[in-house]
Amino acid sequence: MVLLASVSAVLSMITLAPILSLMFFIIFLASMGKSLGVRRMYVELLVKIFEYGRQNIEHIRKTQYANLNTSETEENQPAKVESSEDSTDKAITKPNGTIATNGDATKPLQNGDILNGGNSVISRVESLILLPDVDGARSRSRESNHDDEDNDSLEFNLTNCLDYVKSGMEAIIEDEVTSRFEAEELKNWNLLTRTNRHYEFISWRLTVIWVIGFFIRYVILMPCRVFICFVGVMWLTLCTALVGCLPEGPTKRWMVKLVLIQCFGVLSSALSSVVNYHNIENRPLNGICVANHTSPIDVLMLMCDNCYSLIGQRHGGFLGVLQRALARASPHIWFERAEAKDRMAVAKRLKEHVSDPNNPPILIFPEGTCINNTSVMQFKKGSFEVGGVIYPVAIKYDARFGDAFWNSSRYSMMQYLYMMMTSWAIVCDVWYLPPMTRGEDESAIDFANRVKSVIAKQGGLVDLVWDGQLKRMKPKKEWKEKQQEEFTKRLKGE
Q: CB neighbours of 163 closer than 8 A, spacing ≥ 6?
């Protein structure tokens, strides 16, 4: 027993020293803003593995469909012999989602088909979807091409209700708001068991790859990432405490920017993050920077490239530690829960911050909640009433390597960090857009919508007018009444 203990101690010392040296080397490179390109090579390798998995899955599915069609053909063979003259009307379902006939003509499968292995798509009549009141005018439909036809007939017809019944049932099944608060659907499986499709055991090759990937993520990557995150938080706390002791002036501002970029670079390496920054000539220097919101790590992705002041509610736990550390070195705006509801107090402190040209740009997420990386929802108008220059930023994550969306109503912060550290990597693109200013006759709401549409277009996101707070509260009574008013007018033929 003594011999075994001594041998294990020697082996642990031999293996532990290189691992610790490697991790400290990674931390040192991250703090200097340097990289050996290992993470990008790692991401490129993952793309090839995902592509191999996709081809393997498609091959297995085609084989299964071919066997299914063969068995069905054999079962129906006697009936086909007796009615050979009707053979031209028979169709064979192909795995690519089409129906092949004897004349080699193809036509798409109808919605709801499950033989092609895909999800059924709900086809909505968008002209029946009413939008919330944005600019004080009466709520209208997306398209009103059908209004002229309906206005011609003043007589009530029962069929007028059927379109609304169909649209209502589709909204109950999956509306365009609540679906933005669920994990983004992936086209291909990324070998993570928490994604929407589970193909671990579809073939022995994928099973082997999945087991190896599970071992790498949970046994190798996760402990290393936790260690790097712990060192990064301690380093951030220490550096901000030291920099906070410096007197106010240009030297302190320069040191704060240098220290924060270095510390957040270390924290980003704990997630194996790969960030691509575009149009850096538009990087904000002061004023207000607004961005779409997917996750708390949005701040991490942006702070690796620039220094920002933050505004938000005070938190406890892990986020509270970071907030207190940041407040020691640079000016940030943190509110208590009751104080954050006072719009006048928030606007006053925001104006005071923006009016000082020495303050770094303040980072704001006008949506007020996290959206699942597919859409941009309603921007609150508060930050657009302050005045000055607005610097839009679009953030788009690559969900193939890990779902960055934080569903705060379902997962706590620690659960979310656990999911991030057991993902393959965090890959995202950040676009700095040209600065925008409010027009003379432009309202704050119109200005907010204009900035939102620019961000959505650049990030390839869906531009929605709905309030993201529907994630936590019921729709306003006024919206319901307008829906009822529109429905009543349609029934009356008005």
A: 125, 128
pLDDT of residue 442: 87
pLDDT digit string (tens) for 454-473? 999 999 898 888 777 776 66
Q: What angle do CA 201, 205, 207 make, to 5 degrees?
A: 35
Supply the pLDDT for residue 29: 58
| CA dist 265 → 54, 227, 236, 446 (Å) | 33, 15, 10, 36
> Which pLDDT score is estimated for 117?
37
d(CA 63, CA 482) in angstroms, rounded, equals 52
Give pLDDT, residue 82: 43
How far, in Å, CA of 168 to CA of 93, rounded?
32
Q: Looking at the chain, how many residues does it have?
A: 494
- Rounded distance between C-alpha atoms, residue 315 and residue 111, angstroms: 46
Radius of gyration in angstroms for the set of CA atoms belonging to the chain, rounded to a whole number: 28
User: Quick one: tokens of 441?
Assistant: 């006759």
Whole-angstrom Cα distance, residue 475 to residue 485?
A: 16
What's the CA dihedral at 211, 215, 221, 224 to 10 degrees? 180
Question: d(Cα 326, Cα 486) in Å, to the nearest integer?
Answer: 51
Residue 373 CA to residue 64 CA, distance in Å, equals 34
What's the pLDDT at 391?
A: 94
Positions in the chain whose pLDDT score sits under 50: 79-125, 128-129, 135-146, 148-153
pTM summary value: 0.72
Contact 491, 156 (CB under 8 A): yes
Contacts of 422 (CB under 8 A, 6+ apart): 217, 218, 221, 222
Q: Which of 232, 245, 247, 359 lies closest to 307, judged by CA? A: 359
In one letter, which amino acid is 366?
Answer: P
Tell me how far apart the alpha carbons of residues 285 and 358 are, in angstroms, rounded to a whole number: 10
